[in-house]
């Protein structure tokens, strides 16, 4: 490539204490190109972008911007050179307006007071850069994640960013929202903005990227065109080939011929005003039931109601013929339900507590004697399940928050395995989990169903739903829009049911 | 294990880590050594017993506070509840004519009930604990004044016994040690104690794991009320009377002790041993400043700085650990 890169990290390295996180990696971002950074969690992607954003300083190598070697001691220094980062966790103040957020830190003033009309105009102009048409007086907290992200991008562009670092921007977006983000990215690309894009969704790479830099264990593995086939990318990333991304061994093998396996979980006419209405389905032993739908279709709300986490208005939830009381988590757990919630850090784990403690919460009371916690027993149970699920950690007393996303998720699963749960309700079970750990979680699901358990899985990743479910329910606007067998299910069939009229709703 | 590895493991003892994890204890030891050098009056039997007696009230209050802070809350009412409990006990004895031991139990029950009300308001009434217990602070202090009509009431002999001596040992020190053991046992060994850490660390994750979060919160505040009552009775027993203005502002000492002891106000962290050390730090500083004839005005300044220093060191420690 004859063109000079906007920014290059040249042979950079970074160590934290004894741990080498990045070793001799070179990556460049060109004007009007989307450079994809690919690697499993822990491969060093975030360390690398933090060096580009001025958060960390490289211990080795150098940073070159427009052909000149620079140092980026602060994020401000990076911003001054036109490098802006859109973080996974957005840096917006939800209680302030869009205009205030876009102009935060550089409010236009007149006579020492905020010049409201200039504020609005400049913010308006920033939103126009990406064709976002919303009232700039709207509070950011009232926007959906997708719009908040666009506001953040507008903010970056308004400070003349030429290089945008997008750290997993699509992780929390629906397919539709992702497409509008990609449209914005395509537009920025045509205007010469260089982008560094991180995503765990392999299918997005060919769609939006130009070239891919693959990292493994902090080292540069390869730079390949974005059109490289997915399994090739996986192989580069994981260092071995993953035979099957979705290793579901459906049907026959798990069920004895001629017998119809019993329904374990039955949900009848379940309704909750404003959330979902009249939901009826049964899940049989050995079955994975996928629930597809757009964000806001009521899937999470349904799962939470079944798990006892929320109340509902009418209908029944039955596990093995036994009706569960409404809104009673303890009763649900006792009946064999295990709930892996959508937001791992916010709802699944006590991140400051140890792996051991986190694995034991569901069984703390049931294994106690005379109100005394069973420490020794808990430890051995936790150790056994951590080994079984291959939770990668230093020790079992390590804070669970220090583990990678996939290992954190395994800890949530492990809790229910210790509790011997037989009906698992999974809400986005592989969100923020890298490819290798994903397959391990799928294999775990197979093991659970093979042992006669039942799984209900909500997921926004269609390939996952299609690949891992034995049967698929599609929800739309809080109602069941249809049911598909594995044979009938295609991306199109699911999307047709999920989104009758896809318009801007959130 | 071969002998050659032994020097390595010994060198492997991470004294830096030890210092970082026991900052308050190290501070206390340094403080004691400094005072021992500065004044001959510090290391005398009588002075040490004084320190023991003074620390008993603060520490017992702070043990109760530890439960609350570990569970992610705060209890501003413990000083007022301590005063109310002692007053109820004396009133039951003097005005209602109950036997002394029953009056003592009545005082403990009063504290427990105040705590339960705090817990109910927080867990079921959805009031932030800061607000619920701020209200209780005012209510309990007010009730104390109402019951006593603003005057001290003498304590029954059973309560005065708590302030007296058991042979050569002051009873408050005995009560303190028993309370420390009980509190530590509750927090470390029992289901409810372990649950407190989960609730304080992430209440929603705890709830979705099937822990009865509301019941745990009520228990936590009830324990804080009970320990406050005990502290109030200790204080009254020493003076042979329940004072309407007793323990005013003690909630802040209790919070300071817990925080100096390494707990985090955002919940999920904290130990009884740490709180004990934190309370000792506060009391030893006051005692030392007294011995050195520093006025109580300056003492407040010093205490404030110590709290800021202790928490500052803690913040720094967590930062270095997380990176």
From TrEMBL, chain B:
It is a multi-pass membrane protein. The chain crosses the membrane at residues 18-39, 51-69, 76-94, 100-120, 127-147, 167-187, 216-235, 272-291, 297-316. Keywords: Cell membrane, Membrane, Transmembrane, Transmembrane helix. It comes from the Bacteria. It is found in: Cell membrane. GO terms for molecular function: transmembrane transporter activity. InterPro entries: ABC_transp_permease (IPR001851). One of its GO terms (cellular component) is plasma membrane. This is ABC transporter permease.
């Amino acid at each position: 490539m004859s063109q000079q890169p906007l920014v290059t990290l040249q042979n950079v390295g970074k160590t934290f204490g004894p741990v080498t996180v990045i070793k001799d990696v070179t990556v460049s971002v060109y004007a009007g190109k989307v450079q994809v950074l690919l690697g499993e969690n822990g491969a060093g992607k975030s360390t690398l972008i933090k060096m580009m954003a001025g958060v960390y300083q490289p211990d080795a190598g150098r940073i070159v911007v427009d052909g000149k070697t620079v140092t980026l001691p602060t994020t401000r220094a990076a911003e001054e050179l036109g490098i802006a980062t859109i973080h996974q966790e957005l840096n917006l103040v939800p209680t302030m307006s869009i205009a205030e957020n876009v102009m935060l830190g550089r409010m236009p003033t007149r006579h020492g007071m905020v010049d409201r009309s200039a504020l609005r105009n400049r913010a308006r102009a920033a939103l126009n850069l990406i064709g976002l048409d919303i009232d700039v007086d709207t509070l950011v907290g009232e926007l959906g994640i997708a719009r908040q992200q666009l506001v953040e991008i507008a903010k970056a562009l308004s400070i003349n960013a030429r290089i945008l670092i997008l750290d997993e921007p699509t992780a929390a977006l629906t397919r539709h929202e992702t497409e509008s983000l990609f449209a914005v990215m395509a537009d920025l690309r045509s205007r010469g903005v260089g982008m560094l894009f991180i995503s765990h969704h392999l299918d997005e790479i060919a769609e939006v990227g130009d070239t891919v830099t693959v990292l493994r264990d902090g080292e540069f593995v390869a730079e390949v065109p974005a059109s490289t086939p997915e399994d090739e990318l996986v192989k580069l990333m994981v260092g071995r080939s993953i035979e099957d991304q979705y290793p579901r061994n459906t049907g026959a093998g798990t069920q004895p011929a001629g017998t119809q396996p019993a329904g374990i979980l039955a949900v009848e006419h379940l309704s909750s005003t404003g959330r979902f209405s009249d939901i009826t389905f049964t899940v049989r032993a050995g079955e994975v039931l996928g629930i597809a739908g757009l964000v806001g279709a009521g899937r999470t709300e349904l799962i939470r109601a079944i798990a006892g986490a929320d109340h509902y208005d009418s209908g029944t939830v039955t596990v093995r013929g036994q009706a569960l009381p409404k809104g009673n988590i303890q009763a649900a757990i006792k009946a064999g339900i295990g709930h892996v919630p959508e937001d791992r850090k916010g709802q699944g784990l006590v991140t400051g507590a140890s792996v051991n403690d986190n694995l034991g919460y569901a069984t703390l009371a049931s294994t106690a004697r005379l109100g005394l916690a069973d420490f020794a027993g808990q430890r051995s149970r936790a150790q056994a399940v951590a080994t079984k699920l291959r939770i990668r950690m230093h020790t079992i007393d390590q804070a669970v928050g220090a583990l990678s996303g996939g290992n954190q998720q395994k800890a949530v699963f492990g809790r229910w395995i210790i509790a011997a749960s037989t009906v698992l309700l999974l809400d986005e079970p592989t969100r923020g989990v890298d490819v290798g750990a994903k397959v391990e979680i799928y294999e775990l699901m197979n093991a659970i169903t093979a042992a006669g358990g039942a799984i209900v899985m909500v997921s926004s990743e269609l390939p996952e739903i299609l690949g891992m479910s034995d049967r698929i329910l599609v929800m739309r606007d809080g109602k069941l829009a249809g049911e598909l067998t594995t044979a009938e299910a295609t991306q199109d069939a699911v999307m047709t049911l999920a989104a009758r009229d896809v318009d801007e709703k959130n | 294990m071969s002998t050659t590895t032994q020097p390595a493991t010994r060198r492997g003892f991470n004294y830096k880590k030890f210092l970082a994890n026991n900052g308050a204890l190290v501070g206390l030891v340094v403080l004691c050594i400094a005072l021992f050098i500065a004044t001959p009056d510090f290391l005398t039997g009588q002075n040490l017993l004084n320190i023991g007696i003074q620390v008993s009230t603060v520490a017992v209050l702070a043990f109760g506070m530890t439960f609350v802070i570990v569970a992610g809350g705060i209890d501003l009412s413990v000083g007022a509840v301590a005063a109310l409990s002692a007053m109820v006990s004396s009133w039951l004895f003097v005005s209602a004519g109950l036997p002394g031991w029953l009056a003592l139990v009545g005082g403990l029950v009063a504290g427990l009930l105040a705590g339960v009300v705090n817990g109910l308001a927080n867990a079921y009434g959805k009031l932030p604990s800061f607000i619920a217990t701020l209200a209780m602070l005012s209510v309990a202090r007010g009730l104390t004044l109402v019951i006593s009509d603003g005057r001290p009431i003498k304590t029954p002999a059973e309560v005065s016994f708590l302030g007296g001596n058991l042979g050569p040992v002051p009873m408050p020190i005995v009560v303190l040690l028993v309370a420390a053991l009980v509190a530590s046992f509750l927090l470390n060994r029992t289901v409810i104690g372990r649950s407190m850490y989960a609730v304080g660390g992430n209440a929603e994750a705890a709830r979705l794991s099937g822990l009865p979060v509301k019941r745990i919160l009520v228990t936590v505040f009830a324990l804080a009320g009970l320990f406050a009552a005990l502290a109030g009775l200790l204080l009254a027993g020493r003076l042979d009377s329940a004072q309407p203005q007793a323990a005013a502002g003690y909630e802040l000492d209790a919070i300071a002790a817990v925080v100096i002891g390494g707990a985090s106000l955002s919940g999920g962290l904290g130990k009884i041993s740490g709180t004990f050390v934190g309370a000792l730090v506060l009391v030893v500083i006051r005692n030392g400043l007294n011995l050195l004839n520093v006025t109580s005005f300056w003492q407040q300044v010093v205490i404030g700085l110590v709290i800021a220093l202790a928490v500052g060191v803690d913040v720094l420690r967590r930062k270095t650990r997380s990176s």
